[in-house]
Amino acid sequence: MKHVLVVDDDAVSRLVLGHMLNGQDFDVTEAGSVDDAIAASAEATFDLIICDYVMPGRDGLDFLEALGETSPPFILLTGHADRESISDDRVDRVSSYLTKPVSTDELTKAVEQVLLSRSV
Predict the structure, then answer these.
(1) Are 46 and 70 contacting, i.e. CB atoms less than 8 angstroms apart?
(2) Which residues lie below 8 Å from residue 49, measured CB to CB, with a gap of 6+?
(3) Rg (Cα) of the chain, in Å, rounded?
């Protein structure tokens, strides 16, 4: 079973994403902030991270940067219309990009693609 970290400052979003992933037989850990996510990453190993971009304090790309070069696959969730609308060079390190609201099918497809590309 793959271990996934879901990071979002919105509790409802975390709950919905967690439910979608649990339905696909993933073990899900949730974090409500970048600081909580960093702490969770220090305590456990994750096969995949799904992280909101815009959060109070530090954003999702700050978290990716804090993970360093050995980051697991990283899916960025955002309300921005497309990846190019984020004017931050760190977005180039993101494994996949999903626009909110995300459907179960979109999430499942992105997760499968990211994990499959990592295992090749």
Answers:
(1) no
(2) 4, 5, 7, 37, 41, 63, 67, 71, 72, 73, 74, 75
(3) 13
- pLDDT tens, per residue, the chain with 120 residues: 999 999 999 999 999 999 999 888 899 999 999 999 999 999 999 999 999 999 999 999 999 999 998 899 999 998 766 555 566 667 678 888 898 899 999 999 999 999 988 765
Full-model pTM? 0.91
- Tokens for 12, please give them: 């409802």
Spatial contact of 63 and 93, defined as CB atoms under 8 Å apart: no
Q: What number does CATH give the domain 3-119?
A: 3.40.50.2300
d(CA 69, CA 47): 15
The SS3 of residue 76 is strand
User: Collapsing DSSP states into helix, strand and coil, what is residue 35?
Assistant: helix
Q: Are 51 and 64 in contact (CB under 8 A)?
A: yes
**DSSP 3-state of 20:** helix
Amino acid at residue number 84: E
